[in-house]
Structures
1.
Amino acid sequence: MHRMAIDATPAEASREAPPKQVAMAMELLGQAARLIADIRLGADRFLEALFLSAEPHQSNKPLDLIRKEESAMKQHLEDLRNIGRQLEDSGVLNEALISRSNSWGLHMPLVCPDGAVVAYAWKRQLAGQAGASAVDRTRLALKSFLEQKRRFFPHLDIESVPKRHCVTQPSVVDDHEDSSYYKSLMDILIGLENESQDMKVLAYERLDWLKRSSSLPSSVNEDSIETSVGHTYPGANKLKLGPLGTVPADKIAVIELFIPSVLRAVISLHPAGSTSPDAVSFFSPDEGGSYLHARGVSVYHVFRCVTEYSNMALQYFLGIKMETALFFLLQWVKSYQTLFTKACSKCGRVLSVDRQSALILPPVLRPYRKMLTTGHISLILNAERRCAWIEDDLSEMPAEAWRRWQFLPIRWKSYLSILVE
Amino acid sequence: MPMKWVLHWHPNTGTTVNSQILNEISLCVECINGVKEGRWKAVLTFYRPILRDQALAAEFPRDFLGLSLPEEPNKYYFILRGQRIVLEADSSIQVIMDKLQSYKSRVSLNFEGTQYRLGDFQVRVGKVVPSHSENMRGIVMEVEYLPISSTEKCRQIMAEFVDILQEALSKRSLPGQFMHIEPNFAEYGLLDHYTSQHTAIQYATVMAQLIATVQQVQPMRN
């Protein structure tokens, strides 16, 4: 097959749109390839027939084979010539169409001087575009991720530690409680119980907590006023009860912090017996039921808000240093003793309308950052509310941002699926 | 049980309550995102002893109140304000009293109205009408903070919530305002943990206030 330089563009080719031309050219090339394969096969049969004729005791069989094959080969070659002519006419075998302006940016398949068929130029072009868009999408995804990381986890960027929150009241300083002192889980729990008169610290194995939460009364009656340790509820003998010391330290998986008349906080440890919390949730002291667990949600708005916020605090404590996370988390929960009695440091009221949700709430925010910047533990007595957020305090992570963070993995899944394509 | 305050409407001197004021109050609650939940009704009854010898009447307390509350359908509450006594009984006590012919109902008043929910708060607005009459004698409002049950811890929250309500109401220029008088629960032997008995005492206090208010305008007929 030789190439002929033809300048004239065939009449029928110009009638079709470029994509159709490309498709037709591809089809013709496919046919040519099939014919070439047939010709190769025919040549093999010729050789076979000749080989057969070389052997003794053969009749006319090889001669018949040769004759049959000869006619087949003639036909194949004729067809190939026809296709060759058609391809020439459509401009595949020369470069006439490459410089055409109305080719829609598509290149016709080209047979190069060395015989290689550049038949996939247009496909490669589209693939190239897909590749380019994947790169763009990745770039956008990375940009979005970095932006959200900067917004929701500013503590991971060391330069962005905020200096806005000042402790306006003198804080309670406990000099002898250095954070490095609390190494073990039991030390932390016992230390906490000793220093707070109002708070009860109870520890459970994971399944025991389920039994305990189910047995808590869901509507309070006079009998359950003494619920603090739970000695009076039925089934107490069967459970390994909460008070520290009854459960082996390496099996403790759930910690309950009960501040009478204020709240009940449930903290889950993972792995059991360690000092790394993985979930925390707040409930009313009157709530009971199997939905009371470290990932459960209270039926009351105020505790729902505190829970949302506490998840951010937990992530913050874990991000700084995992070993001390539980200690700081417990101290921070303790600061909620005054949830219903201490006024907001920004607006001076105990109750006000939260702008985001239009709910009437007490101050649900207790700052947690300052707890780690000082060398010793200072109880933060500032109480704040969401009313302050919208003005200037993006570093306080509105609960809506936390909600968006929870949805982030779903969006990421869609990003990843585009990359994998 | 969640902490509750029972407030009564104190009309300005020379004015009386009417249903228009009640409507305005209801609208006001709805304006601050109150969601209507349903109706409620409590019944307060003044009892007097049935005595053969009327001379003994002086030995019996003047105001013996009985109260049925919507949140406790199986209970009935008795209050003797003068003696600081509150008692929780089964609701069948009314039948028993009737059969024994020991006490008779002198006057019965209905506290009825609509219940609203505002986030963690529950508000009930209602009118006070005698059982067999449509003549409105007063307006009451119940405010309840659902998450916690401690009387002490809730005090500030309740006070501020009432402030929010009063602020909203003051914009409507109504002839009067809500007032809350906190009874001394300890005198009745009750604890910090809030119960329906606390509610009963509050209703008795409110009743006394309503009587005083009405008597300013006209003497109350027995």
2.
Amino acid sequence: MLDASLSEDRYARHHILPEIGHKGQDRLGAARVLVVGAGGLGAPVLLYLAAAGIGHISIADDDVVSLSNLQRQVLHSTSWLDQPKTQSALARLHDLNPEIEITTYPVRIYDAEAISLVGQHDLVIDCTDNLEGRYVLNHACFKARVPLLSGAISGWEGHVGLYHPAQGGPCFACVFPEAVEERPAQNKGVVGALPGVVGATMALNAIKHITGAGASLLGKLLLIDTLWNEQRLLNVAQDPACPVCGGSHQEGC
Amino acid sequence: MATYDVVYFAWVRERIGLPREEVESTAQNVSDLISELSEREPRYAAAFSDLSAIRVALDQDLAQFDAPLEGVHEVALFPPMTGG
Ligand SMILES: [Zn+2]
């Protein structure tokens, strides 16, 4: 059984924060969050959300830990090489916070199953490493009316947005429409600390979203360029012609 | 003639070789500005060869390529990033 005084201690620095307090901590404890991708972005997202006491975390990833991951995926360790990332994550997060429930899905999420899985959660966090997966998640979140916190990185840069058309904001495809043409190949280089910056920003905004603290990222896109110290908070709106969510106010399917 | 702060992100920045620059232009909208830049040097033409993969924000508001530039100070050009 959980010891109430231990839990009181564990989250003490949240309890005394006016924007979170016991009420906010209870919301974190009641939240069910799906994190898709346990790589560069997934590492800080999972570590900080587990530490923050998110009551139920689901982790989906079909990959194994490889040596070239460890320069930035700080959730995983050398002793876990060639093991599934979901298992490595589960062991590390359970050690970090045994009070929370963790479910693992060592698979790649496709459309039909994504919608049912997404629908069992209050928030989905997109830490995938490909555009195709982002569009699958976006579509599933729109159908299931679940907010999607999506982040992406490249080189020294990243962007973070919160998409929830059911609340009037855009979906991911409103901001980044699916291109008909093949996109230019992205250089796969990434500086080790970058997913820390972008992933921690995602974890922080997940905590804000669940507790209702401060300003939401709904209708915003945060661009971060760590090489040239540029940062922009863009205003983004729903596209009435969006093939995913356009006209979503009229019909419910 | 107007002066714009043009800011580039991700592979758009890599291809152009600058994070930002001041651009003087008589362009009426974003498409015209991009055409002007593409005619200046091959690195711009390379960066703007596939506009379907580039998004634009005018003074921090997401906009379309046919949006007018009148009164605008900053033009940001960025592609979706895909890594995670
Ligand atoms: Zn949309």
3.
Amino acid sequence: MILQVEDVTKTFGGLVALSDVTFQVEEGEILGIIGPNGAGKTTLFNAISGVFKIDKGKVIFKGKEITKLPPNQRAQLGIARTHQIVKPLDDLSVVENVMVGACFGKGNAGLASARRKAGEVLEFVGLEGKGDVLAGKLNVPEKKRLEMARALASDPDLLLLDEVLAGLNPAEISNMLEVVKAIRNKGITILMIEHLMHAIMNVSDRVMALVYGRKISEGTPKEVANDPQVVEAYLGDPELAIGLLKDKRGRG
Amino acid sequence: MERGKTLFWLIPFLVFIVALPPVTGSVTLREGIFLILMYVTLASSLNVIMGYTGYVSFGHIVFYGIGGYISFYLMLRDGMHLIPAMILGGIGAALAAFALGEAVLRLRGAFFAIATIGVNEAVKALVNNLNFIGGAEGLFFNFSVYKAYGGAARAIWFSYYTMAAVTLITVVASYLIKMSKFGLGLRAIREDEDAAIILGVNAKRYKSLAYAASAFFPGMAGAVFFFKAGNIEPHDAFHLIKSIEMIFMVMLGGYGNVAGAFTGALVYERLKGFLLVNPLFKNLHMAISGVVLLLIVLFMPQGIIGFIREKSKKLRGVLE
Amino acid sequence: MLATWLGAVLNGTLLGLLYGLAAIGLNLIWGVMNVINLSHGAFIALGMFAAYFMVHSFHLSPFIGVFAVLVMGVFLGMATYFVSLHRIISAPELSTLLATYSVSLVIIGLGTFIFTTNPRAIDVRMGALSIGGTVLPMTRVLTGLFSVGFILWLYYFLYRTWSGKAIRAVSMNRDAAELMGINTTITLALAFGIGVALAMTAGVLAATIFPFTILSGGGYELKSFVICVLGGLGSPLGAMIGGLILGLIENLITLQIPTSYVPFLEFAILVFILVVRPTGLLARR
Ligand SMILES: Nc1ncnc2c1ncn2[C@@H]1O[C@H](COP(=O)(O)OP(=O)(O)O)[C@@H](O)[C@H]1O
Ligand SMILES: [Mg+2]
């Protein structure tokens, strides 16, 4: 077990963004996280990566409790993430962006080896040739790849991907999914938030559904997709509900 | 990417400038270049916290004053030689910055800027009241202090070369910091501190260290300047306008850029010198500086070197 | 003894009201536009010189002329906004800090050129008021009353007029205000204009009490920072209270410790509050 999340609760003022969320992640698996907008998925990532203090509960990574560690220390232990709203370091070149990941993450590389690593990773995510461009000049799909590259360059054990497919066209999506699978094949554990049902059902080993800050379902993609509670939760969100139903038909 | 070329022209250029007064024997030239050197030191140091890290230290002159006072006091009371006194002044300034940084570097943006102004004004007001370092009157050398250097005239040449050495060290250090892993971390903090922390940068520690580094060199510059002046008083040592001049120089040359801080200081000193001697502009130099600063902020925020870097890919490697 | 204290409290209150007025323009601009106006002090100094010319060239009482200065200040401030800030209003703070600072350089530079830095004073003799043994010059009393008046006017403007409401809307959320059909450019310019106008009125009033030079605004500007962090941003009432605290501190503390320690205390308070409570001591958040 690489990650244990126990009874994690987080409130913002009166709003309960996460409520007693408990789950575990096995080493090497891809755990998909679904849920309507505002369900608390990003907040969960923030709790795991340490962006803010949680109100209650524990986060245990590789057997070590990290609940109180600041984000930079968690990064060095091997947790890396991407952001739903991309955060490129605009005035640094693409290579330098990735080098930051390599230098300060778990890999703790020196500048020279970070540069080499950055070259490899950029090729891996399909950004070769963009190395000297300023990160701020990239388009959105490229920025998403950059987020991914930066996280990967740190040699993480656990990778948190927050809606890396959102806003991409079908070709880019299948491209990105290949990248995700390739990352898993390297032995990196992945937690992946995604709205696109067919995509997440396709790559995940297991799926977990969050609604209003609560975990309402967990299991194989098929189990979760057929869970009446999940279907009900998505009825408020017709587009997603249709996606879910289509997906079930496709599989069934 | 080819690196390291910036210093190949910057250092010889600096040495060339330094050599002009002794070669020509011109005292006027020496005074001008002494000021240029000091400005280069101040701008290059400020660049570390402001340009690389993105924290605009508006009251940065406080470290120049602290270094100046520490060394002046040591030289006056204990008859310490300029060099060790200067190093202690630098260390004192750096320690002050490190301690202060723990508190004020938690603030971001304008709040940090205002806090640093507050710090400078508070220290100035405090020194005004401390009688053991002369209060509002300040401290004065009696001429015997210069005897150890072979008289006042030689002491001034000595301070000139010392300033040159400090400048050289500052420029090289600011370059090495920028090109190091530490510098990469600082620049990541400048672009997006939260993202940098998530990527593993220990922002708190890095910021404090950067602040200390950017205080160390002004501390030494202050030591040399007030040694040469022969007196130090709070109003001169903690003059907020000088702080803003430093920011101006960094902006003029190009934010976050070693060659930029250098160029900015050089151009600024020449510009100021020109305005001050020209009878037409003499009394208007402040207003003209204001107009120039405004034009830069509005139309060329990347500064002279930043502008050239944008226009010419070829020159980018030699203008880090 | 008691009389000394009473005197200090009365003087401190009147001075504090003036400080509050001096800070309010800075506070408004900071709160609404997220711009720290480093030309604030220069505009205060301009107000002082406006008072000087009122008295010496037009033989007009500053307490009447101050209304004309208020109106002119709005236009001057709006012009300054369009020249120096409009282009960079969304840029990082450094740009607006430096832009407003360069405005200050221009004003003070021209002011020094025209007026030199010799101290000046205006002589408005209006008698005095005696309360419990404390003699208060009428100018001080009027200054305090006018300060309160201008702050009440600002409240009325911000909460009762359409333009004022637009300013508050823009300060809460610029994008949303734009969507609601508010012309944010004009609104921001107006906010800056009013901030500048209030700074200038404070200058006019201050000139009736203290001698001044073109550089005198600087001290008020620094005090205004202290007041803004004491009272919190974007709240005129907070600025007033912050001003009162500062005025009282200055007058009461000096009964106990030497006056020369007052600036140190003020700036130490500034830094301390910023570090402990950056939203301001009295802010609700
Ligand atoms: N920093 C924050 N401050 C206040 N509320 C927040 C913050 N972050 C998230 N929230 C709120 O918490 C809830 C969950 O948000 P989030 O985790 O982003 O949802 P999701 O990623 O599932 O769409 C939302 O209602 C959101 O508005
Ligand atoms: Mg989200």
